[in-house]
Known about the structure:
The protein is an alpha+beta fold.
Amino acid sequence: MLDTPMVKNKQTSRLEVLRKFASLAPFSAECLQALAKGSVHFSAKPNQVIFRQGEVSESMYVILKGRIKFERDDHKNETINSGELAQYESFGEVSMLKREPRQSTVTAVTDAEFLVIERALLLEALGKSTPEEVADFFSALNDQTRKMYDAQLLEVLSKRSLSAQMEVEKQRALTQMVAGVAHEVNTPLGVINTAVAIMARELAVPAEMTAQRAADIAESLELIRRNVDRAHALVQDFKKVSVSQLVAEKEKLNISDVVSEIVGLMAVSLIKHGVSVKIVDKLKPEEKSWIGYRGFLSQVLINFLTNAERYAYPKGGGQATITLELEDQDRLRLTFADHGAGISKENQSHIFEPFFTTGRALGGTGLGLAIVHNLVTNSLKGEIKLKSQEGKGAEFTVILPRVIVE
């Protein structure tokens, strides 16, 4: 049966497209014509899975349009991003040729279109090719595979660095809080010591209990009571935050209280750097309930506060504002804003990337905001956005579900 002109045009179009793929370009026109004729067109929507890790398939895919991403679960069941491919790149050849399970899950990032080439069809094309054409095919395939493995290695190293830095940040935050609590507790203890000395003096010598003496003793007792309460509250706040840094436990919390506790525990460091923090709480009493992780939220806020000290106001002196309000019925909005140095436009798209920093000379590692992004999006199941203008401060908006569902 002869091809109709419409079928010929379709095959010719596919032939021209296949020439644009590095791994297929070495094939002769005859082989490419056979591949074009035998391939099947396939389209996918964003987030549609093309194939899953562990599946066995006898197909390879060439991308006509759009982008796809590779994700792999390691032995700890952690998902590793192995990179992305776009138009005029191909994938799935190695597993197809070796008849091995797929090493990654492939998902469409955008609307995408593919040509699907079966194993038998590719082997037939290879059988009809010259040794040089076959060598060029496998060379191109090797280059693409190495590119994917390099991307995967970088992702693994980045995750490990991020995990290690998160532990360092936890310890640093705890050290800061220990110093702060020790300093803060000294104040009520000093007052208690003075009050006890006054009482000891008044009671040391037997004398008539006059109204004035009774008033002095009563005042001393009240001072002791208030400052014991203050010291107790400081220790309790530190205990709650420090334990939550070490053990990730989901709790029903008052988010306004959690924010106040964290800011209070950072008070000494903030005073040292001349940074004042104003908390604007727009939540009604019934809106303050949050089922989430105190420790993760404390790490996010401590990073924001530390960045304000180090980068927003490097010379000291300035104000930061934390605003709490309802985003909608199911979500809370926490906004952290300063009026300091700000972030340049060209740096804003990189600010959450691991190892990106403009403050290496100030002790920055480039992992602080990467940790924040990881905690907000993965651990707290939320979203984070940045709005900034150089010289006019930065504003981070964190949207959190009122109930974190695993």
